[in-house]
């Protein structure tokens, strides 16, 4: 009778051992899947962080460029505001010594010479 109980116990232990091995295999598979997902997420996170850094750099460059342009506009506006009244004619063209001799000699009439247009860049260069 004692041997039979031992055989039953050994059989039960072997079955439990088999169940434990199966359970361990399932856990190992889950661990591998989770580990692979964690790696994938780390790579994706790195890519997103890199994109974010590039975006921040681009934004900083844009802000600096906008600030520089804003300062340039303020400077040019102050130059324009400091010009004496009548400096521009009715067409917002410079009305001063910058006119060509042929324009002045013609009494302000247009001739075959192309009309000069003065930009803010010209004014900036002229008053610096």
What can you tell me about this protein's structure?
This protein has 128 residues and is an all-alpha fold. It folds into two domains: 1-66; 83-128, no CATH class. The chain is 73% helix and 0% strand. The radius of gyration is 42 Å and the shape is rod-shaped. The model is unreliable at 98-105 and 109-118 (pLDDT under 50). Residues 85-112 are annotated as: Disordered. This is 2342_t:CDS:1.
Number of helices: 3
Q: Main β-sheet, in a few words?
A: none
**What is the CA-based Rg, rounded?**
42 Å
Which stretches of 5+ consecutive residues score pLDDT under 50?
Answer: 98-105, 109-118
> What fraction of the residues are assigned to beta strands by DSSP?
under 5%
Number of domains: 2
The average pLDDT value, as a whole number, equals 79
Look at the helices and sheets and give the structural class. mainly alpha
Number of strands: 0
Order of helices and strands: HHH
Report the oligomer: single chain
């Amino acid at each position: 009778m004692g041997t039979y109980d031992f055989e039953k116990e050994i059989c039960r232990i072997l079955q439990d051992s088999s169940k434990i091995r199966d359970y361990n295999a399932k856990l190992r598979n889950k661990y591998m899947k989770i580990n692979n997902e964690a790696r994938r997420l780390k790579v994706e996170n790195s890519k997103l962080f890199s994109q974010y850094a590039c975006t921040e750099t681009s934004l900083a460059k844009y802000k600096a460029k906008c600030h520089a342009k804003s300062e340039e506009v303020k400077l040019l506006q102050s130059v324009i505001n400091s010009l004496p009244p009548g400096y521009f004619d009715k067409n917002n063209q410079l009305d001063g010594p910058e006119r060509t001799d042929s324009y002045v000699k013609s009494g302000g009439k247009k001739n075959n010479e192309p009309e000069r247009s003065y930009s803010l860049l010209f004014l900036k260069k002229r008053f610096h």
